[in-house]
Design brief:
Blueprint lengths: L1 E5 L9 E7 L6 E2 L4 E6 L4 E5 L4 E6 L6 E3 L3 E7 L49 H9 L18 H9 L34 H16 L2 E9 L1 H18 L6 H14 L6 E3 L2 E3 L6 E3 L1 E3 L2 E3 L2 E2 L7 H17 L12 E5 L18 E5 L3 E7 L2 E15 L5 H16 L2 H5 L2
Parallel strand pairs: 12-16, 16-17
Antiparallel strand pairs: 1-8, 2-4, 2-7, 3-6, 4-5, 6-8, 9-19, 10-11, 12-15, 13-14, 17-19, 18-19
Helix pairs in contact: 5-6, 5-7
Length: 420
């Protein structure tokens, strides 16, 4: 009996993914719930497991190809035994090209740099991911050795050509590339050319989109962290013992933000065409840095969560981020974001909005500074806060008042308990 492995639901507004890596080869034995392929979406990298035990009978989607939700990835023959050990697989994934198959560009006689390119990359039936890589690096796909199924070109083949400096298209002298940089880049042995990952490209695109679309403005304030730090110092051990979670500062800021959002609903709203959509719930995104880039897991309905629930969930998100296990559902539906650059030592910054959200709070490094308390000067642990907001729907008065409300809640955390 054969079982089809299809692309799962990828999350809110995510309709396609790139097949980044096959963990198994055709003919390999697989166990139930064992990951067999890795997909890369606009937001996360996720592993797709086999629902049954058996043998990987066929790989339908090659590495580097773009697949939609419910597209067929592979077929597993349920209950069969592997024809050979996985370690000596005869049919390796596209990215495992034999080392003896040297790229044509390494041969002195190879005409890689002079062979004219096809009219367009699609003439060779390239996958969208491979075509994009070819076009971005101005390569001639006909001059790159193909190791994929049925002689198809894979991302690994293109990357090998890039690493070896071959398969470049010789542009005619009269050709003036429209999107070419002002100064051509020459190869330097001290440099390394690495294609941007799908996640990094999307991050770049979305951040630039926020700058181009929103009327973005940032307002600043500073908060005295003395009260929160004293409270945390007094109860952190007991808190961890009772709840199994570390008591940090983020939980206090999430609660303070929700209090402020209830008073200033425009900061929790978004623009959709000619409408303003006000959210009567508070899904707070918490920005987390990973080796692959910035991701923003979301605390769903955070208004219903206690401090222990918030800290526990944030801890789970952090572990998932480190292990690369964050799923699309973890990052969908945010209405407001908090970013903590202070963990990296940032003293002040202007965070960029996470579209379609209209506000983002930036936390920063806690630093002892002299401040005026009454008629005397004292040394206090201070933190700069930054609120970037979309001025199209949030007025300056609302933005400043929102940030002041957050400041008041942090400086006197009893307000959070009493709701005042």
């Amino acid at each position: 009996m054969s079982t089809e492995i299809k692309v799962p639901v990828l999350g809110e507004s995510v309709v396609e993914a790139t097949v980044s890596q096959w963990m198994k080869s055709k003919g390999d034995a697989v166990q139930a719930d064992e990951p067999i392929v890795e997909l890369e979406t606009d937001k996360v990298t996720l592993e797709v497991p086999s629902p049954v035990a058996g043998v990987l009978e066929d790989i339908v989607a090659a590495e580097g190809s773009t697949v939609g939700v419910n597209a067929l990835l592979a077929i597993v023959a349920e209950g069969k035994a592997a024809a050979r050990p996985a370690s000596v697989s005869a049919t390796a994934p596209a990215s495992k090209a034999p080392e003896t198959a040297a790229p044509a560009a390494t041969s002195p006689a190879a005409p890689a740099t002079t062979t004219p390119a096809p009219a367009n990359a699609s003439a060779m039936a390239l996958s969208p991911a491979v075509r994009k890589l070819v076009e971005e690096n101005q390569l001639n796909p006909a001059a790159i050795p193909a190791t994929g199924k049925d002689g198809r070109l894979t991302k690994a083949d293109v990357k090998a050509a890039i690493d070896n400096g071959g398969a470049r298209i010789a542009a005619p002298a009269s050709a003036a590339p429209v999107s070419a940089p002002a100064h051509a880049r020459s190869d330097d042995p001290r440099e390394e050319r690495v294609p941007m990952s799908r996640l990094r490209r999307v991050i770049a695109s979305r951040l630039k989109e926020a700058q181009n679309t929103a009327a973005m403005l940032t307002t600043f304030n500073e908060v005295d962290m003395s009260a929160v730090m004293a409270l945390r110092s007094e109860y952190k051990d007991e808190f961890e013992k009772n709840h199994g979670a570390r008591l940090g500062f983020m939980g206090f800021f999430v609660k303070a933000v929700i209090t402020a959002l209830t008073e200033f609903p425009a900061v929790n709203a978004e623009i959709h065409v000619f409408y303003i959509i006000y959210k009567n719930f508070y899904n707070i995104g918490v920005a987390v840095g990973t080796p692959q880039g910035l991701v923003v897991p979301v605390l769903k309905d955070a208004q219903n969560m206690g401090l222990a629930d918030i800290e526990t969930t944030i801890g789970e998100f952090g572990q998932k981020a480190r292990d690369g296990k964050l799923g699309p559902a973890d990052m969908a539906g945010g209405t407001f974001t908090i970013s903590n650059g202070g963990v990296y030592g940032s003293l002040m910054s202007t965070p960029i909005l996470n579209p379609p959200q209209s506000g983002i709070l930036g936390m920063h490094k806690i630093q002892k500074r002299p401040v005026a308390i009454g008629n005397s000067v004292e040394i206090r642990p201070m933190m700069y806060l930054a609120l970037s907001y979309d001025h199209r729907i949030i007025d300056g008065r609302e933005a400043v008042s929102f940030l002041v409300r957050v400041k008041e809640s942090i400086e006197d955390p009893r307000r959070l308990l009493l709701g005042v």
